């Protein structure tokens, strides 16, 4: 079987589904497990640091691991960098069968830091049985030195190993998400898959077809370059219970909104009207946005958060790295000037509109109808921590002898 540690809501699993392969995932988060169950993915809800190894010995052909990134991510306090020497020590010890985790954990500034060493506990036990055949691991870029340590150890065990940083946009993900990747194999030379996309489209040459241009948010969502999102309207709590993190609540039809008196008209200056394809089109992430355009000289863009240095990208570009925490409700669609000097206009610029969880999932290359479970805060947390399935599929396909077809990842319906 293929074993997926820290399986989350199913980024790697969705990739394997596309490739026609099944796995078993280990995950602790309750709502991620419920999402996986709804998606039909085999899951064991457990503390990975405490789960016994014997059920897997002699049975694992591939090991996947994406340890939690909160301790290392730029979106957090990054105490993982402070704890990094302790994590390196834990990896070195575990590679020799010495379990020093309890002692090292007591010295860590962030207890999540040491989770990045857990895959080595599994790898050491499996290696004694000549397994796994291959390994694929992913984390934020700051974990690359740790992946290089893993690679060096795996080489002494007979693996070919490669560790480096890849940009998800180079593999058709509508997001410039950079990640540290470790790939290792006992049967083939390990290395990154060839990129399929580039910032600028490449022409066909004698050596074959050139790479396509990076996939934009508009392409992934099925929007036109100036289409605007549906306005946000007040409603109740999220489907999974708990507080609704957005004052806006869930989306309703505009006719309902007018009746309730909560709808504000932000019609574009050309007189186009809001005409959603269906009442649930944007709420489910499966429909075209409203047939309206940004004011002349403006375009729609996605701003990651409200910080001064927040990444803002036009919808004709890939998104920046999506991460969601307490500032999830600050990731918004907003109108921005096409040129450096904003055009003068008597028409007010449309108000920012919060991104939906379904849209965020699509930008992470999950299907539009992926069965996310939980309220919006819980879903955003799952989306932000997941591996983009399209990137995962490119990483896994060579190990499985599979080939990806151009239409294997249909996002917006």
Automatic annotation (TrEMBL):
UniProt-listed Enzyme Commission number(s): 2.1.1.37
BP GO terms, sorted: DNA restriction-modification system; methylation
Active site: 69
The keyword Cytoplasm belongs to this UniProt entry's keyword annotation: no
First-tier enzyme category under EC: transferase
Source organism, top-level taxon: Bacteria
InterPro entries: C5-Methyltransferase (IPR050390), C5_MeTfrase (IPR001525), SAM-dependent_MTases_sf (IPR029063)
Sorted UniProt keywords: Methyltransferase, Restriction system, S-adenosyl-L-methionine, Transferase
Biased composition (Polar residues): 278-287
Residue ranges of the region described as Disordered: 233-294
Bias-annotated ranges (Basic and acidic residues): 253-267
Entry's Gene Ontology molecular function annotations: DNA (cytosine-5-)-methyltransferase activity
Family of this protein: Belongs to the class I-like SAM-binding methyltransferase superfamily. C5-methyltransferase family.
Protein name per the record: DNA (cytosine-5-)-methyltransferase
């Amino acid at each position: 079987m293929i074993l997926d540690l820290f399986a989350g809501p199913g980024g790697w699993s969705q990739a394997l589904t596309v490739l026609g392969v099944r796995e078993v995932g280990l995950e602790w988060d309750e709502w991620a497990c419920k999402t996986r169950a709804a998606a039909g993915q085999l899951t064991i809800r457990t503390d990975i640091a405490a789960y016994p190894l014997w059920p897997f010995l002699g049975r694992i052909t591939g090991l996947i691991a994406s340890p939690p990134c909160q301790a290392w991510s730029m979106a957090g306090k990054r105490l993982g960098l402070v704890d990094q020497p302790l994590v390196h020590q834990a990896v070195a010890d575990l590679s020799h069968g010495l379990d020093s985790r309890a002692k090292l954990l007591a010295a860590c500034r962030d207890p999540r830091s040491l989770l990045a060493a857990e895959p080595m506990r599994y790898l050491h036990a499996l290696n004694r049985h000549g397994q796994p055949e291959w390994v694929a691991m992913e984390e934020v870029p700051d974990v690359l030195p740790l992946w290089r340590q893993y690679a060096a150890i795996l080489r002494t065990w007979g693996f070919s190993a490669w560790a480096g940083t890849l940009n998800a946009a180079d593999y058709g993900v509508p997001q410039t998400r950079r990640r540290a990747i470790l790939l290792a194999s006992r049967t083939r030379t390990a290395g990154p898959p060839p990129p399929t996309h580039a910032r600028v489209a490449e022409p066909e040459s004698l050596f074959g077809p050139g790479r396509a241009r990076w996939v934009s948010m508009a392409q992934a969502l099925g929007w036109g370059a100036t289409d605007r999102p549906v306005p946000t309207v007040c409603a109740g709590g999220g489907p999974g219970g708990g507080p609704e993190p957005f004052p806006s609540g869930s989306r309703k039809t505009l006719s309902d909104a007018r009746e309730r008196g909560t709808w504000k008209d932000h019609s574009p200056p050309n007189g186009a009207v809001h005409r959603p394809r269906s009442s649930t089109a944007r709420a489910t992430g499966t429909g075209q946005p409203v047939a309206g355009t940004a004011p002349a000289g403006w375009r729609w863009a996605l701003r990651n958060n409200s910080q001064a240095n927040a990444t803002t990208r036009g919808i004709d570009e890939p998104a920046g790295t999506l991460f969601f925490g307490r500032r999830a409700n600050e990731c918004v669609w907003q109108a921005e000037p096409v040129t450096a000097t904003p055009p003068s206009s008597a028409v007010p610029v449309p108000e920012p509109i919060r991104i939906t969880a379904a849209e965020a999932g699509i930008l992470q290359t999950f299907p539009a109808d992926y069965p996310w479970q939980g309220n919006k805060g819980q879903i955003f947390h799952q989306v932000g921590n997941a591996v983009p399935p399209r990137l995962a599929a490119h990483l896994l396909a060579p190990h499985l002898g599979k080939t990806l077809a151009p239409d294997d990842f249909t996002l917006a319906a």
